[in-house]
């Protein structure tokens, strides 16, 4: 029955492509250009590096070293810190791919894997700071506000989802005393390298091959959804979706005049954010709509994540619910950062007030943000270690 039901929309899309071949071809060409000119350059280095780091045992190193941080805050093992780091620096769907790999290696339970994909699939930082703030809103100073709301909402989801399926069993904990963590982490790295056994040349070749295979799948989804969105516009489906979204937008506090942008963003994130940036609304209203769309990510990203975890026992429904919550939280936070908290955010906006071509602006864009992210990650690690120390009895912990 499910196969029969799934065949109906496929046949409908095929019929519409036959009726509108030129529009379908143009949409597919636009999706292919976006994949080749934007997605491949942005994601390929992260995909290759992530595969190399996993093969070199870095994940196992982090798994031991960051266990005291990840367990108290997010209720996931320390190896998940690698997924968090890559997900927050490269964006979706890399974190879903890495989560599936950790699950296949037995480093995550099904509940932990579902928790992890719920708060690590972000929009790319370069997309928010560059494409959205500069290209669509024509104001680089809005980039930190949008990114701060986006990441803060997702981190909040990580803490919230730590209670998801918490009664189920967790992956084994290392139980290593704090003062022995560096040595135990180094031993885990060496053990992982011995188990892998591949020389670096083969590891690099496998990483490039695997990365391009995944990028080809992502490109297929982008082209397919570009065609589907164009056909939905031609047949009036988007207008029906806009009417259906009005009650929801009122419920979550978004301007109902942004229904056209939100409807497009429900299907594809880039098209939705571009439409929201061109709306004849106040800047806060446009920022709220853009943040909601970035949090929801679009059905195209949902399909990519579904493909990444298709070979595992991880379910997609928690991820979809988390994306909806992410959109609502991010839209509220961006209004808070642009309103009551704007004096604090101005400290982050100051580096972007200089000319885009100046050397210090370029240094901050390409170097400062990674350093700030690293400092933030180290600070959270220290906080996790402190919480871990407080939760354990001293005689057991410091022995």
Could you give the topology of this structure?
Elements: H1 2-19, H2 21-55, H3 58-65, H4 67-74, H5 80-90, H6 94-104, H7 110-120, H8 125-136, H9 143-160, H10 181-196, H11 200-235, H12 237-252, H13 259-267, H14 269-277, H15 283-296, H16 298-308, H17 317-338, H18 342-349, H19 359-391, H20 394-397
Helix pairs in contact: 1-2, 2-11, 3-10, 4-19, 5-6, 6-7, 7-9, 7-17, 8-9, 9-15, 9-17, 11-16, 12-13, 13-14, 13-15, 14-15, 15-17
Task: Summarize, please.
The protein has 20 helices and no strands. Helix 7 (about 110-120) runs parallel beside helix 17.
General description of the model:
It is a single chain. This protein has 399 residues and is mainly α. It has one domain. It has 20 helices and no strands. Helix 14 runs antiparallel to helix 15. The longest helix has 36 residues.
The gross shape turns out to be: globular
Helix content: over 70%
Number of domains: 1
What does the radius of gyration come to? 22 Å
Please mark out the parts with pLDDT under 50 across 5 or more consecutive residues, or reply none. Answer: 354-371, 393-399
Q: What is the average of the pLDDT values? A: 77
Features:
399 residues, mainly alpha, 20 helices, 78% helix, globular, disordered C terminus
């Amino acid at each position: 029955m499910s196969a029969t039901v799934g065949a109906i929309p496929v046949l409908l899309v095929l019929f519409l492509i036959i009726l509108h071949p030129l529009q379908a071809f143009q949409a597919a060409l636009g999706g292919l250009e976006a994949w080749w000119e934007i997605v491949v350059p942005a994601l390929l280095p992260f995909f290759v590096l992530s595969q190399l780091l996993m093969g070199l045992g870095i994940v196992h190193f982090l798994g031991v070293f960051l266990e005291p941080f990840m367990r108290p805050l997010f209720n996931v093992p320390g190896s998940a810190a690698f997924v968090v780091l890559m997900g927050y620096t490269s964006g979706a769907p890399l974190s879903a791919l890495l989560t599936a790999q950790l699950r296949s290696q037995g480093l995550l339970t099904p509940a932990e894997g579902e928790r992890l994909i719920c708060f690590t699939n972000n929009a790319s930082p370069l997309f928010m700071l560059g494409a959205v703030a500069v290209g669509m809103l024509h104001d680089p100073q809005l980039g930190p506000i949008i990114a701060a709301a986006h990441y803060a909402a997702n981190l909040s989801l990580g803490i919230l989802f730590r209670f998801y399926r918490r009664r189920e069993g967790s992956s084994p904990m290392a139980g290593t005393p704090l003062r022995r963590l560096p040595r135990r982490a180094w031993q885990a790295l060496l053990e992982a390298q011995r188990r892998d056994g591949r020389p670096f040349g083969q590891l690099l070749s496998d990483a490039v091959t695997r990365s391009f295979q995944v990028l080809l799948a992502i490109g297929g989804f982008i082209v397919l959804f570009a065609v589907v969105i164009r056909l939905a516009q031609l047949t009036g489906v988007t207008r029906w979706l806009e009417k259906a979204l009005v009650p929801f937008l009122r419920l979550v506090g978004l301007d109902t005049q942004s229904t056209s942008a939100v409807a497009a963003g429900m299907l594809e994130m880039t098209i939705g954010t571009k439409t929201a940036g061109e709306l004849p609304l106040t800047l806060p209203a446009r920022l709220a709509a853009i943040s909601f769309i970035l949090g929801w990510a679009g059905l195209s990203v949902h399909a990519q994540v579904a493909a990444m975890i298709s070979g595992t026992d991880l379910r997609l429904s928690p991820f979809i619910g988390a994306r909806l919550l992410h959109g609502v939280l991010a839209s509220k936070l961006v209004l808070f950062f642009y309103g009551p908290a704007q004096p604090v955010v101005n400290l982050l906006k100051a580096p972007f007030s200089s000319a885009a071509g100046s050397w210090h602006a370029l240094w901050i864009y390409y170097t400062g943000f990674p350093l700030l992210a690293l400092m933030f990650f180290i600070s959270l690690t220290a906080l996790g270690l402190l919480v871990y120390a407080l939760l354990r009895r001293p005689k057991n912990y410091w022995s």
